[in-house]
TrEMBL record:
Membrane topology recorded in Swiss-Prot or TrEMBL: Multi-pass membrane protein
Single Gene Ontology MF annotation: diacylglycerol cholinephosphotransferase activity
Residue stretches spanning the membrane: 40-66, 136-154, 166-189, 220-237, 258-277, 289-309, 316-335, 355-377
Name under which the protein is recorded: diacylglycerol cholinephosphotransferase
Cellular component aspect of the GO annotation: endomembrane system; membrane
């Protein structure tokens, strides 16, 4: 079981806390959500975020149909549908909290669903974004995956230690999603190949002599990654500062909290090494590899959120890191034999066996994450006497006040 029986009473102590400093959210999106869009959902409806995720799944299916190699131009309507689908997902996700407050169903299960679905969406959007910018099966796609998952992991790690979800003036769930919607909308008119052209030249800007040639000829897609890297660095610093401040206010040691970043960054020391040593994964089978990494990441995030909800110790270990470590060590042995004369023979030997191993890892990650989801949801629903996908105890404003249903 993923939740100890002794920790279940902490579910009733859970209180959602969030700080959203986004001006776009405050003055544009929230009024639209709370005054207009939320009225489309009946009070009997639950799990709006999960419903909105269906739009992203449809987007992924159209990508796999028209552009499975992530380097072709699709019909314009495909990109337009991606923009609409992602915006609808963002809207459904934002309305989910408002719906929970309307129906008096706010609780830890909603928090778990929200973060779990967002984690899966993050991986799928990386693939869709790579297809929209014709990144192909490349290191740039892997770098995009690293940055996107890192930003999400930082937010989850920060929320565990501070007890509050912080969204700054510029954040991924708000401005980041809207930026992606804009990218998809522009691609609908310009085509995906547009993003591979030199940005300064296409915008008619003068060449700046102090910039090296590699920067002057940088494409739109590469400049977007530079922008994302700057935002990610800012998020790392800001999240770390918030966690350090929270730990100091409680007179708790800082080092154990900072070690919570180790599971993510340790994993991402092994991933690029594995891909470098086994380039056939990168060149030919990057999609199942990305889905495997994404499921492993969603599992790690789920463990952190569950620990946050139940006030349990931080989960430093992720069992799904072991297949990544095994694959990396298997590929590293022959490399060391050639370079240093010290190493070990590869069991997989590269080629089809390596690809079969990646597919097996994908299946394993889906099984582990699926069992985690079922077990945690079942335990929460049984303890709090609620249903997962529907409302078991509807709120009746005329009824006398009873004990709160989480």
């Amino acid at each position: 079981m993923y939740i100890r029986q002794s920790k279940l009473p902490n579910l009733r102590k859970y209180q959602y806390s969030a700080v959203d400093r986004s001006l776009v959210s405050r003055y544009i999106l929230k009024p639209f959500y709370t005054k207009c869009f939320i009225r489309l959902f009946p009070l009997s409806m639950a799990c709006i975020t999960l419903s909105g995720f269906a739009f992203v799944v449809v987007n992924l299916l159209t990508l796999l149909w028209y552009n499975p190699t992530l380097d072709r131009d699709c019909p314009g309507w495909v990109y337009a549908s991606w923009a609409a689908g992602l915006f609808l997902y963002q809207t459904f996700d934002a309305c989910d909290g408002t719906q929970a407050r309307r129906t008096r169903q706010s609780g830890p299960l909603g928090e778990l669903f929200d973060h779990g679905v967002d984690a899966m969406n993050t991986t799928l959007e990386v693939v869709i974004f790579a297809g929209a910018m014709n990144l192909g099966y490349s290191w740039v796609t892997i770098l995009t995956l690293f940055a996107s998952l890192c930003a999400f992991y930082l937010t989850t790690w920060e929320e565990y230690h501070t007890g509050t979800l912080y969204l700054g003036l510029v954040s991924g769930p708000v401005e980041g999603v809207l930026t992606l919607c804009a990218v998809y909308a522009i691609t609908a008119f310009k085509g995906a190949s547009f993003w591979q052209r030199p940005m300064l030249e296409m915008l008619g800007l003068p060449y700046l002599d102090f910039l090296p040639p590699v920067l002057r000829n940088l494409s739109f897609a590469k400049w977007y990654l530079v922008y994302g890297g700057i935002i990610l660095a800012f998020n790392v610093v800001q999240s770390s500062r918030n966690v350090i401040r929270a730990r100091r206010s409680k007179n708790l040691p800082i080092t154990p909290a900072l070690l919570g970043l180790a599971p993510y960054f340790t994993t991402w020391l092994a991933i690029p090494l594995w891909l470098y040593l086994r380039p056939e994964i990168l060149r030919e089978h990057i999609l199942p590899f990305i889905f495997f990494v994404g499921a492993s990441f969603a599992y790690q995030v789920g463990l952190i959120i569950t620990a946050h909800l139940t006030r349990s110790p931080f989960p430093y270990f992720n069992v799904l890191f072991l297949p990544i470590l095994v694959g990396t060590l298997d590929a590293l042995g022959p490399f060391l034999q050639v370079g240093l004369g010290l190493g070990w023979p590869s069991v997989l030997g590269g080629g089809p066996y390596t690809i079969a191993y990646v597919l097996a890892c994908l299946g394993l990650s889906i099984g582990v994450y699926g069992s985690f989801v079922v077990d945690v949801i079942t335990n929460i629903c049984d303890y709090l006497d609620i249903w997962c996908l529907s409302i078991k105890h509807p709120y009746d404003p005329s009824a006398p006040e009873q004990k709160k249903v989480e």
